[in-house]
Amino acid sequence: MKYTDPTGHEWTVDLECNTVWEYPDGTQVPDYVYYAEQAAQREQQQISANKIGDPPLPGQWEKQVQQDPPTVAEIITEVVFDTVGQVRSLPNTIIGLGFAVFSGGDWRFGPGGTIVVENVKPNSPTRNFMNSVLGGSPAFTVGYVILTKEDDIRGTVTEYHELGHVTQSAILGGGYIPAYIGAWLAAGRNWNNAMEVGRGHPTWPRR
Length: 207
Prior knowledge:
2 domains; four-stranded mixed sheet; 6 helices; single chain; 207 residues; 16% strand; alpha+beta; 9 strands
């Protein structure tokens, strides 16, 4: 379904996830849209507060709606996908771990057996790579390793986007990096290419 949020951004949303958020008028959107809106609203509220001295406005969301839990078949499918994907992605993951070692960031385990490295430190080799080679990208993913400059990406659009790259790596295996480079070249050396996660591109099978 198409949805335009209060900040003017249009989304193609997928409600096949365990948790969605609901507006007072009954409109439902998934977690990643909710968190993006909250961040945009906080920024706008801060701008308004600085201009006129008013306190932040209350949030526009009424309640969180729990969807039906996943079926046994869905759980088995995801476990198999994760296991096979990790094996197929192992060469990429090893490269990702190399970036992680030189990131100075904070490590933790993420969804589906991923390794998330947040708060990649300024002046670290990995941060320099992100700024110089990746055009200042706030995050990137190699195999099952997600690296980001942000402090905490749990439940955010960044996490949703990067988990899409994990899915690509699980499907393509050792061909993921060559495929990405090929897409980058085909787009005129543009990072906004066919491998970037968005409308029509792979997304993580959400729990």
